[in-house]
Design goal:
- The protein is an alpha+beta fold.
- It is globular, with a radius of gyration of 28 Å.
Length: 757
C-alpha cells in the first residue's frame, strides 16, 4: 500500500551503460524522486530516493547539485562510504548531501556549472538566469531582452540552459511574452532557442522546446510538445533527428548516443492540443536512447510504476553510484578530513570493521551471510553488546523466532534496561501470534524509555488489531517520531481535535495508496467540523479524492501558498481527533465516486471477476501478503466466468500465465486510480491480496474477497471473515504462515457455489 517505483528496460540499455562505464541520474518532480540508474548483473537497477520536487541537475568533478522546491542541494562523492550504505559492494561512488542553499520558490529548471565552477540555473518564475550568492537568495545574471522587469509570474517560461566552451550560451523558452503567464497563449508554436551572448533568436516557431545542448559541433534540443529530438548544424536549418513516444525533456550524451527523458504528460489545459497528443496514443515515461548518426531508437528504460514525468537526466562517470539522503545515519558518521589529520587517527576498534561488514550484509538482506559473520565476531568477543543484539535481530529477520527470542533474552540478562531488545522481543511474539507476551515487552520497553517512539507505535498497532481504538490511535500517532516516517513540514499548527469551525484544514496523505483510500471515509466527518477541507496527496489519486463529499480542493505535490490553510492534519491521524471507535466507525457500502470525465473500455463477460495478487515490492510485509500468480490462478479452473487482471506492473512471465489461463490483462488501462476504479466498477467480484486494489474495490461497494496472510495488518484484526471497515468485503485468512492452500480452497468452493446459485 505504498507508491510503486519500478522500471523495465531493454538489454541494449544495460549494455550502453556498461560499455560507457557510467550511470544515470534522473529527476522526476512529479513523483518527488531522484533515480539512480545503474547496470546490475543482466539487468538494470533503479534506486529511488525521495526529494522535494527535484528538477535541474548540474554536475562537476566529484559533485552534483539538484534544484528543488525552494533550494539547491549539493551532493559530494565520498567513495569510501559507498560499500557501507547497503546498496551493494560494487559501489564505486557515493554522493552525500553537503550543502543546501535556500533560494525560495522560484521554479528552478535546468542548471549547470561554468568553467570557473560558478553554478548557473534557470529561474523560471522570474524569467531569468541566476547564480548563487552567499549573501542573497540568488543573483539574477541575464534575462531575455523583451522582459522589462522582474516578478514571479513566469512570463516566458524560460526552462532550458546549454553551455558552450565552458560558459552558458543557449536558453530555451516556451514563448516570447512580457505578460504574466503570457507564454501559454501560443504554446503550440511560440517556443524559441536564444543565444544569450548576442540575444539573437536562433530558432523559433517551436512547440515547447527544452534542453538546448552544444555537442559535437552542433546545437541539439528537444521539441517537447512534438516529442522530437532536433539538431541544428552551423549555418543550417534545424532538422528532426528522431520522434519519440513521449513529452521529451532532459538530454545528455554518451559518445554517439543521445539519452532523452520522456514523460507521459498530464491531460490538462497546459498540454492539451500538442502535436504529440495527436501523434501518440500511448505515451511513455522513462529514458530513450537514440543513435545520433542514424536517428534510430536503440534502447530504452520505461518506468512502470508511479513515475509519469521525467525532468532531467545526467550521465555520471561511475560504474555503480550510490546516493544517500539527508536522513541517512551515514551522514553523521562520514567525514572528509585533510591527510595530515588522517595520519594521526587512533587505531580502529577491532570489532568495528567486521561488525560493519556483518551489518552491511544484514541491511542488504543476505541474512545467512550476516548470521555467519555475527557468529564469527562473537567467537572472538562473546560479550560484545552491539553484536549480540544485532545477531538477535538478524535471527528474527530470518524468521528463526525461537532462537532469536533466546538470543535477545540473553541480551536482556546482560543489559536489563535495553529497551530496543524488549521492543524486538515484542515484535517476535507478535509474529508468533502471542499477543499477551508481545504487549508485555512493548509495555516494558516504554516503562524503560517513556519516549521510545517505535515501541509506542508497535503497541499502537497491536491495540488497534485488538479493536481497542480508543487507546490505539494515540499510540499509533507516535509513528511520526520513528525514522521511517517523515513529518509534513509547515509553520501552521497541527489540528488536534480543537474547534476549527472557522478554519481551513489541509489534510495530507501518508503511507500507501490503500491507506489513503481506506481513510478517505473520515473526510466528510471532518468537513462538518471546519470551514473548508483541502486534500494534499499524490497525483494518481487526486481525481478520486476530489469527488469525496466535503473536499473543496484536491492538491498534488508542489509549492503550497502559506495562506492556503490555517491548520493541517495527517490523514491517518483523523480518527484519533474525531474520536473514532468501532462503535462510531463510518462504514458506508460505497464512498468513492468515479469522475464523469473518466472513460475506459467496456468489459465483457458474465460474471466478471478481477484478480490482484501482489502489492508494492517495497512494502515491509510484501513477501508474506503476496501470493504466487500461478497458485492464485488455480481458482479459475472450471469456473464459468471472465477473469480480469488488475495487476501492474507485469513481467513477461505474468503475461504468459494470464494468457494460458484466459485471464484478460487490463494493465494498459490501469495507470491512474480513477481509471482503475472505472474498470473495477464494471466487475461483479474482486479477489485480491491485501493491497490498494482490495481497498479500492471495497470502497466502491464491490463484493471483495481479500486473501490475508497469517499475521495480517492491524486493520483486519485477528479473526473473522467480516470487516468492520468494509461491509462488502469477505476475509480469507491463512491458518499456517506462508500456506495459501486452505484460503484458496475456500475461495474456490465459494466460486463454485456462486456459479451454481
Amino acid at each position: 500500500m505504498s507508491e510503486t517505483f519500478s522500471s523495465q528496460s531493454t538489454d541494449s540499455f544495460r549494455e550502453l551503460l556498461t560499455l560507457g562505464r557510467c550511470n544515470l541520474l534522473v529527476s522526476t518532480y512529479q513523483a518527488g524522486q531522484l533515480v539512480m540508474v545503474r547496470p546490475q548483473g543482466q539487468g538494470i537497477n533503479t534506486h529511488f530516493m525521495a526529494f522535494d520536487r527535484p528538477m535541474g541537475i548540474a554536475r562537476r568533478n566529484n559533485e552534483f547539485s539538484i534544484g528543488g522546491a525552494a533550494s539547491i542541494t549539493t551532493f559530494r562523492n565520498l567513495a569510501a562510504v559507498g560499500p557501507k550504505v547497503g546498496q551493494g559492494d560494487q559501489v564505486d561512488a557515493c554522493y552525500l548531501p553537503r550543502k543546501n542553499h535556500i533560494t525560495g520558490a522560484i521554479d528552478i529548471h535546468e542548471m549547470g556549472y561554468d568553467k570557473h565552477d560558478k553554478l548557473w540555473f534557470v529561474n523560471t518564475k522570474m524569467s531569468c538566469l541566476a547564480t548563487l550568492d552567499q549573501d542573497h537568495s540568488f543573483k539574477p545574471e541575464w534575462r531575455p531582452p523583451f522582459i522589462t522587469a522582474y516578478d514571479l509570474t513566469d512570463r516566458c517560461h524560460l526552462n532550458g540552459l546549454g553551455f558552450r566552451d565552458g560558459m552558458p550560451r543557449y536558453v530555451s523558452m516556451l514563448g516570447a511574452s512580457d505578460e504574466p503567464g503570457g507564454w501559454r497563449k501560443n504554446k503550440i508554436s511560440g517556443g524559441q532557442i536564444m543565444d544569450i551572448t548576442t540575444n539573437k533568436v536562433l530558432v523559433d516557431g517551436l512547440c515547447m522546446p527544452h534542453s538546448p545542448r552544444w555537442y559535437k559541433d552542433a546545437l541539439w534540443f528537444l521539441s517537447s510538445g512534438s516529442g522530437q529530438l532536433m539538431r541544428m548544424k552551423q549555418g543550417q536549418a534545424p532538422e528532426v533527428v528522431a520522434e519519440l513516444p513521449g513529452f521529451t525533456r532532459g538530454l545528455d550524451f554518451i559518445d554517439r548516443y543521445a539519452l532523452i527523458g520522456l514523460s507521459q504528460i498530464r491531460e490538462s489545459s497546459t498540454f492539451a492540443g500538442l502535436p504529440l497528443t495527436k501523434r501518440v496514443d500511448k505515451r511513455q515515461s522513462g529514458v530513450w536512447v537514440v543513435d545520433t548518426q542514424s536517428g534510430e531508437i536503440v534502447a530504452f528504460l520505461v518506468f512502470t510504476g508511479n513515475v509519469q514525468e521525467v525532468f532531467e537526466i545526467k550521465v555520471l562517470p561511475h560504474q555503480c553510484t550510490a546516493i544517500v539522503d539527508a536522513q541517512s545515519p551515514f551522514i553523521a558518521s562520514s567525514y572528509e578530513l585533510p591527510q595530515k589529520v588522517l595520519n594521526n587517527l587512533a587505531p580502529a576498534d577491532p570489532v568495528q570493521a567486521p561488525l560493519e561488514v556483518a551489518s552491511r550484509a544484514h541491511v542488504n538482506g543476505d541474512l545467512e551471510e550476516a548470521l555467519s559473520l555475527y557468529r564469527d565476531i562473537l567467537k572472538q568477543h562473546p560479550n560484545h553488546p552491539v553484536t549480540n543484539q544485532q545477531y538477535g535481530v538478524c535471527l528474527l529477520d530470518a524468521r528463526q523466532w525461537q532462537v532469536g527470542i533466546r538470543q535477545l533474552e540473553k541480551v536482556l540478562q546482560q543489559q536489563p534496561d535495553n529497551a530496543e531488545a524488549m521492543n524486538s522481543l515484542g515484535c517476535a511474539y507478535l509474529e508468533l501470534g502471542q499477543d499477551e507476551q508481545a504487549m508485555h515487552y512493548f509495555n516494558q520497553a516504554i516503562t524503560t524509555d517513556q519516549q521510545f517512539a517505535l515501541a509506542h507505535y508497535n503497541r499502537g498497532k497491536l491495540l488497534l488489531k485488538q479493536k481497542n481504538y480508543a487507546e490505539g490511535w494515540p499510540e499509533y500517532g507516535w509513528r511520526w517520531q520513528t525514522p521511517q516516517f517523515v513529518p509534513f513540514k509547515s509553520d501552521k499548527p497541527q489540528w488536534q481535535g480543537e474547534d476549527i469551525s472557522d478554519k481551513t484544514i489541509l489534510v495530507h496523505s501518508e503511507q500507501g495508496n490503500g491507506d489513503h483510500i481506506m481513510f478517505w471515509r473520515f473526510l466528510p466527518l471532518l468537513a462538518e467540523r471546519c470551514k473548508e477541507v483541502i486534500y494534499f496527496g499524490p497525483e494518481n489519486l487526486a481525481p478520486l479524492v476530489a469527488e469525496i463529499p466535503g473536499v473543496s480542493q484536491s492538491r498534488i505535490p508542489g509549492v503550497l501558498d502559506k495562506d492556503l490553510f490555517d491548520v493541517y492534519c495527517p490523514l491517518m491521524s483523523l480518527p484519533q481527533y474525531l474520536e473514532i471507535t468501532l462503535d462510531n466507525l463510518p462504514a458506508p457500502k460505497r464512498y468513492i465516486k468515479i469522475p464523469n470525465q473518466v472513460v475506459v473500455s467496456e468489459l465483457k463477460g458474465a460474471p466478471k471477476i478481477g484478480l490482484s495478487w501482489a502489492g508494492a515490492a517495497s512494502h515491509n510485509n510484501e513477501s508474506n501478503r503476496s501470493i504466487d500468480l500461478e497458485q492464485l490462478l488455480t481458482i479459475t479452473k472450471d469456473i464459468d466466468a471472465q477473469f480480469y487482471s488488475l495487476q501492474m506492473p507485469l513481467n513477461n512471465e505474468d503475461r504468459a500465465l494470464l494468457k494460458k489461463y484466459n485471464v484478460i490483462d487490463l494493465e494498459p488501462e490501469l495507470p491512474g486510480y480513477a481509471r482503475t476504479a472505472a474498470l473495477v466498477d464494471q466487475l461483479d467480484l474482486v479477489i485480491s491480496v491485501d493491497t490498494a486494489i482490495a481497498h479500492l474495490a471495497a470502497a466502491l461497494g464491490k463484493e471483495t474477497w481479500i486473501l490475508l496472510c497469517k499475521n495480517a495488518d492491524w486493520r483486519w484484526h485477528k479473526s473473522g471473515e467480516h470487516s468492520e471497515w468494509y461491509p462488502t468485503a469477505t476475509l480469507f485468512r491463512q491458518e499456517d504462515a506462508g500456506n495459501w492452500r486452505k484460503p484458496l480452497k475456500s475461495i474456490k468452493d465459494r466460486l463454485v457455489d456462486k456459479m451454481h446459485a
